[in-house]
Automatic annotation (TrEMBL):
Residues 417-661 form the AB hydrolase-1 domain. InterPro entries: AB_hydrolase_1 (IPR000073), AB_hydrolase_fold (IPR029058), AB_hydrolase_sf (IPR050266), Epox_hydrolase-like (IPR000639). It comes from the Bacteria. It comes from Streptomyces thermolineatus. Residues 331-345 have a biased composition (Low complexity). Transmembrane segments: none annotated. Residues 346-361 have a biased composition (Pro residues). This is AB hydrolase-1 domain-containing protein. The lineage of its organism: Bacteria, Bacillati, Actinomycetota, Actinomycetes, Kitasatosporales.
Length: 698
């Protein structure tokens, strides 16, 4: 009978590399089942079977076989972590590899997915008929706290299950890796890849506003002195893991992939910056940071946590050479004592004569890898990070509502209630195009052209907007929706939840304005104060509209947030793609009058009185540099909602759903999935969480 090897992993990158190594190292009688349990999310869509099979083929020694990437020996299965148990029931395997390296951007989300995969494999172990089990986890340090404890607990669970089943076992640990294929697989491992992502994402946000800005301005970084990154290639990690875990005649035990000598962080930043066309300059402190420097600094926080001290690196245990006695592996008796609750035995120091740690990745190899990763980046104005595959765009259709045509945009995929995306008054769909594109692979999405400002529209107050939302519900044919409101859409979404409480599963407010007559006075941004004065004047004297058109030009959309906020600098400049959208309510006098009267009507709506009766979860996402909708007022409004979360994005403006669509879409997606856990599931240095489950601001 052929030997069957099951390689299941939450990292398609490392599991795929191991599958390629197995196919290259074994004879034609070995069959490999690669089970990818990577979870898709906005900004990181997991690869499908075809993509993963192609990656394995490219990694195989000797190159792929045209039309047959596995030489007839590879089967690829893709499933979400929670669905692995059902997939494994139909399988059998002689050896099982569980690859859970802990590389998810969210430690809580990653630990949950890794535990689900490991638990499903261990539960199925007796039925699989396996003779050997290999657990691959992260090489964590005790000071990493909860993450370290959770992954060591998984190791103990694996050892105990194997001992109970009479299956030989090995527990292997590896540091994060770097690989040119990671972006195409939707992966961003800690360390070098997070650094490359930070530079690329800042470059994209800046150049979306001011092309060529980096030709005249450097980016400054602080906190790099004395730190280095261990640049372990995924190919080398897979080779070392295979060598430590594949041979059937090795005893049970633990081993750690040796880390290469670290490369100074400042050198890595300089090379990576050059690849992205950015002059990165280390500085001693953050005193003179501009907005772009601050954003990069926040996004490098995770990289600094993964860095090591150059002068006093922690001792590393090395994997032995093939002919070296395995004195660093512990036996089953020691494992039993570790499984009872003590820390599992770590790898002992390498015996005399063992090979030294591998040398650091050479400068030439760094240039090659960083350049390959950079070459896969999307243009600044495109939907980024592989978040949207072909066919994810929204379809346009026209339905009849209140005797007039209503233009809908809908599409996407996903289980559960659809996302109803409510645009701001007077605005076209362009503001939310990128966000909807990132949401569509994970949710059914429906949005529409908000009515009331076109010349052919009659007067269209708040009640008419609620009627349009009712019509959208009927057109889509769903009974419940998650309702997302941007800017003025937040107040209308709240009113709709009161009007149709049975139809609303949750509320999401993006850069919300809760401006209300006689409420939260003194919290206006300058733009809100100017807009209120103009709108009230036009409501009384519409004939003045032509003279007031220039008072609210796009420049007034501002780069400053609440009083005392630091200057947003280049990140306060309006994206070029939004210039025409911003002008939409101000393009002629008649449209401006209609827009002004819509706002005056909305300001009469008492959302503060409605909010305490909102029983569904609510998520507020606001921005530090929002110069249009007051973040201070939004925080006060959040206090009124019984089940509110409030997240503020640092160094972001009013158009954050357009400027940072993947991040906002991830917030929305995780909130819809687990509203009470979203603050733990989405942890980025640029997000500050302000409200707890009772809606009380801290």
């Amino acid at each position: 009978m052929p030997l069957r090897v099951l390689i299941a992993g939450t990292s398609p990158l490392l599991a795929g590399r191991l599958a390629a190594r197995c196919l290259s190292a074994t004879d034609s009688g070995t069959e490999v089942v690669l089970l990818s349990a990577a979870g898709s999310r906005p900004g990181a869509v997991a690869p499908d079977r075809r993509e993963l099979a192609g990656f394995v083929a490219r990694c195989r020694a000797g190159g792929p076989t045209p039309g047959d990437p596995g030489g007839g020996r590879l089967t690829v299965v893709c499933a979400e972590p929670d669905a692995v148990a059902a997939e494994v029931k139909a399988l059998d395997a002689d050896r099982v590899w569980c690859v859970v390296p802990g590389w998810d951007r969210s430690p809580a989300r990653g630990a949950r997915a890794d535990a689900a995969l490991a638990g499903a494999l261990l539960d199925a172990l007796p039925g699989l008929g396996a003779r050997g089990y290999v657990h691959v986890g992260p090489d964590t340090a005790p000071d990493e706290g909860r993450a370290h404890r959770s992954y060591r607990a998984l190791e103990r669970l694996a050892v105990e299950a194997c001992l109970d089943a009479g299956v030989s076992w090995r527990v292997l640990r590896t540091a994060p890796v770097v690989d040119a294929g990671a972006p195409a697989l939707g992966e961003c491992p800690p360390g070098a890849h997070r650094l490359l992502w930070a530079l690329d994402s800042v470059r994209a946000e800046v150049e979306d506003r001011v092309p060529g800005w980096f030709e005249r301005h450097p980016l400054r970084v602080a906190g790099t002195a004395g730190l280095g990154l261990t640049l372990l290639t995924a190919e080398r990690a897979a080779d070392e893991l295979w060598r430590a875990g594949a041979p059937g005649d090795l005893p049970d035990g633990f081993a750690t992939v040796p880390r290469p000598a670290p490369v100074p962080l400042a050198d890595v930043l300089a090379r990576a910056g050059a690849v992205h066309g950015i002059d990165v300059r280390p500085v001693p402190d953050r005193g003179d940071f501009g907005a772009a420097d601050r954003l990069l600094d926040l996004r490098l926080a995770d990289v600094r946590r993964q860095a090591v001290r150059l002068r006093s690196p922690a001792p590393e245990a090395d994997l032995p050479a093939p002919d070296t006695p395995r004195s660093d592996l512990v036996g089953p008796d020691a494992a039993r004592s570790g499984a009872a609750g003590a820390e599992p035995p770590a790898a002992l120091p390498a015996p005399a004569g063992a090979p030294p740690p591998p040398p650091p990745l050479s400068a030439a190899d760094q240039w090659e890898v960083f350049g390959a990763v950079g070459a896969r980046r999307a243009p600044a104005g495109a939907v980024r990070d592989g978040a949207v595959r072909d066919g994810a765009g929204l379809r346009r259709r026209v339905v009849e509502a209140a005797g007039r045509p209503l233009v809908l945009f809908e599409g996407g995929a996903g289980e559960g209630p659809p996302l109803m995306v409510l645009n701001a008054l007077g605005q076209g769909p362009g503001f939310l195009t990128r966000l909807c594109a990132h949401l569509a692979p994970h949710h059914r999405v429906v949005t529409w052209q908000v009515r009331g400002t076109e010349r052919e529209d009659p007067a269209w107050g708040t009640r008419r907007q609620l009627d349009d939302m009712e019509a959208v519900c009927g057109a889509v044919g769903a009974e419940r929706f998650h309702v997302l409101g941007w800017c003025t859409g937040a107040k209308i979404a709240t009113a709709f939840q009161q009007y149709r409480p049975d139809a609303v599963a949750s509320l999401v407010f993006l850069n919300a304005t809760f401006r209300q007559d006689g409420r939260w006075d003194g919290m206006d941004t300058k733009y809100e104060s100017d807009l209120a004065a103009v709108c009230r004047a036009l409501d009384r004297r519409p004939e003045k509209a032509a003279r007031m058109l220039g008072l609210l030009a796009p420049g007034a959309a501002g780069g400053r947030g609440s009083p005392g906020a630091r200057d947003a600098g280049v990140l306060g400049v309006l994206s070029r793609e939004l210039a025409d959208e911003v002008r939409r309510p101000f393009r002629d006098a008649e449209v401006l009058v209609r827009y002004a009267r819509q706002l005056v009507d909305l300001w009469r709506l008492d959302s503060a009185a409605q909010a305490p009766r909102v029983t569904v979860p609510a998520l507020f996402v606001c921005s530090e540099f929002d110069g249009i909708s007051s973040p201070a007022r939004a925080r006060e409004a959040a206090r009124c909602f019984p089940h509110a979360r409030y997240a503020e994005l640092a160094v972001a403006g009013h158009y954050a759903p357009h400027d940072r669509p993947a991040l906002v879409a991830e917030l929305v997606t995780e909130f819809v999935r687990a509203p009470h856990e979203v603050a733990d599931l989405v942890r980025y240095a640029e997000i500050t969480w302000h409200a707890d489950t009772e809606g009380t601001a801290r």
